[in-house]
Design a protein that fits this description.
Butyryl-CoA Dehydrogenase, subunit A, domain 2; four-stranded antiparallel beta sheet; alpha+beta; single chain; Butyryl-Coa Dehydrogenase, subunit A, domain 1; Butyryl-CoA Dehydrogenase, subunit A, domain 3
Length: about 375
């Protein structure tokens, strides 16, 4: 099977790599320390079309598909994982609206989220609904007098939630129906009753802000329902399938970045009178790191390829995310070992990359959840 990139995709890789090197890498340490993602960087992403990947041009996007997103996210993650995650998770919302939004919703929101440079967020997780997404407790009650829904509840661990202008929020409209009673809504940051709560202090991915969102009689126009009432759980699961490919790309990129740093360090670091690249034990580390990362790359690319040609890809998305995430932890751990004491110091990027890699095993579904998805697909359960 040929995963050769098109000329357009080769240009995306070149542009992404240049942007990551000149704009993202110089800020990576600073945003990790400050826990703040600079909006100037996001607006530059928008100006270059990154935030419009997968969105038709008539709505402000640049077209393309899952492979185009993978390429950009992969290159970003090599230099700054927080920036890669910011882009990858932002794209979930415009992709949902592109696929399921009404024409009015597309015209109103997509230009803002693409060339407009506004941040989007995907608000599903709650204190009691993490891996068990069906446990959503946020409610949305219809008010006939105003033709709107009144949302009440709390979301947690929402990437970009504190910066987002537009959010897809999942809430119960018919609790008695279980997962078929969950619906999806477009919420704007200025809607009365919506507020941002705690900004989390995380182990890693500090430059990508993670927030608690609070809904207290938040009124949302009925025209902001995404898809049909009761389709929210299905929408969320489909969106997460796609998002898992993006997370796989994050894991892939951070592993490739760690290998690049390790090769440079091994060739210049001299011990016992010779570069440590001459030491067989460390050569074997590099061989293992490169082999596993190449395998992760083709799993991620394969899932993206299936998505783009319209074939089923849910199992492959789970596989690529599971594998790329575990490999990211494996590779950054060995890369830090290669760097020794320097790798452990906060002044060097490996310490940050080691912390950042761990989240890929947790968000967009834990590794354990992905094993459930994969086994069920294989066993026909």
């Amino acid at each position: 099977m040929d995963f050769a990139l098109t000329k357009e995709q080769e240009l995306i890789r070149k542009l992404s790599a240049q942007f990551a090197e000149t704009e993202l890498e110089p800020l990576a340490a600073e945003i990790d320390d400050t826990h703040v993602f600079p909006m100037d960087s996001f607006k530059k992403m928008a100006a270059l079309g990154f935030t419009g990947i997968g969105v038709p041009k008539e709505y402000g996007g640049v077209g393309g598909g899952s492979m185009d997103e993978v390429i950009a996210v992969e290159e970003f993650a090599k230099k700054c994982m927080a920036s890669a995650a910011t882009l990858s998770i932002h794209l979930i919302t415009p992709h949902i609206l592109t696929a399921l939004g009404t024409e009015a919703q597309k015209k109103k929101y997509l230009p803002r989220l693409t060339k407009g440079g506004e941040v989007a967020a995907f608000a599903l997780t709650e204190p009691g609904a993490g891996s068990d997404a069906a446990g959503v407790k946020t409610t949305a009650v219809y008010d006939a007098d105003t033709n709107s829904y009144i949302l009440n509840g709390t979301k947690c661990f929402i990437t970009g939630g504190s910066r987002a202008s537009v959010l897809i929020v999942f809430a119960m409209t018919a609790p008695e129906k279980g997962t078929r009673g969950i619906s999806a809504f477009i919420v704007e940051k200025d809607f009365p009753g919506f507020s941002v709560g705690k900004i989390e202090n995380k182990m890693g991915l500090r430059g990508s802000e993670t927030a608690e969102l609070i809904f207290e009689d938040c009124r949302v126009p009925a025209e902001n329902v995404v898809g049909k009432l009761g389709q929210g759980f299905k929408i969320a699961m489909q969106a997460l399938d796609s998002a898992r490919i993006g997370t796989g790309a994050q894991g892939l990129g951070i592993a490739e970045g760690a290998i690049d740093l390790s090769v440079k360090y091994m060739n210049k670091r001299v011990q016992f009178g010779k570069p440590i690249a001459a030491l067989q034990g460390l050569q074997w580390y590099i061989a293992d790191m490169a082999t596993k990362t190449e395998a992760a790359k083709w799993m991620v690319y394969h899932a993206a390829y299936l998505h783009d040609i319209g074939k089923p890809f849910s199992m492959e998305a789970a596989m690529c995310k599971l594998n790329a995430a575990e490999n990211a932890r494996f590779v950054t751990n060995l890369a830090l070992q290669i760097h020794g004491g320097y790798g452990y110091m906060h002044d060097y990027p490996l310490e940050r990359m080691y912390r950042d890699a761990k989240i890929t095993e947790i968000y967009e579904g834990t590794s354990e959840i992905h094993k459930v998805v994969i086994s069920r697909a294989i066993l026909g359960k």
